[in-house]
Amino acid sequence: MKVLLINGSPRQNGNTATALGEVAAQLKKNGIESEIAWTGMKTMRMRRIS
């Protein structure tokens, strides 16, 4: 299993990044791979899938 952690904060290395890093460390301890994606300053659009 792989978990995607999304950091939507405008500060790439702020408190949210620190918290997500802790989550990633705990996941790793339990044998779960994770990746942190930073979307901070990017415009995101959701697309409806029917």
Description:
The chain is α+β, with helices and mostly antiparallel strands. The chain has one domain (2-38). Helices cover 30% and strands 24% of the residues. It has one helix and two strands. The chain has a two-stranded parallel sheet. Strand 1 (2-7), helix 1 (15-29) and strand 2 form a beta-alpha-beta unit. It is flat.
Brief sketch in words of this structure:
The protein is α+β, with helices and mostly antiparallel strands and 50 residues long. The protein has one helix at residues 15-29; strands spanning 2-7, 33-38. The chain is built from one helix and two strands.
What is the oligomer described by this structure? single chain
What share of residues is helical? 25-40%
For the biggest sheet, the summary is: 2 strands, parallel
Low-confidence residue ranges: none
How much strand? 15-25%
